[in-house]
Sequence to fold (129 residues):
Amino acid sequence: VRLSVCPSVRLSARFHVMKFNRGTWEPTIYSILSPDFCAIMFNENIYWFTNWNKNIANRAEIEEKCINTKDTVITYNPFLMSMELDNVRIPNVHGRYKVVFTFEAFDENNERRPTSLCFEISGQSEKIN
Fold:
């Protein structure tokens, strides 16, 4: 991942889960917003770390620079992402889902910068008894 912005900007990170239903992607109730991603990216109690950032190979560099320093590259160790939701009381969880990740930059005046990053991960869901 390479994102070229100034170190003084604040990075907002968001992900939301969408379900494929009858030919279109529909939003679900599952989403997370972190207004200051660099401040929490290595917090071991937060989703970003437990499912994603714990796999960063160059952690010391990223802890120092985050990803809002120009030409900083995050290198991940290979990993399998497996999401599990406990105590979900939804009748139909089977089907195609995607998680949309969005990173947006904000300047010192809290104005959104034109630089952003968006990517998706798609997969299947099934109920485990």
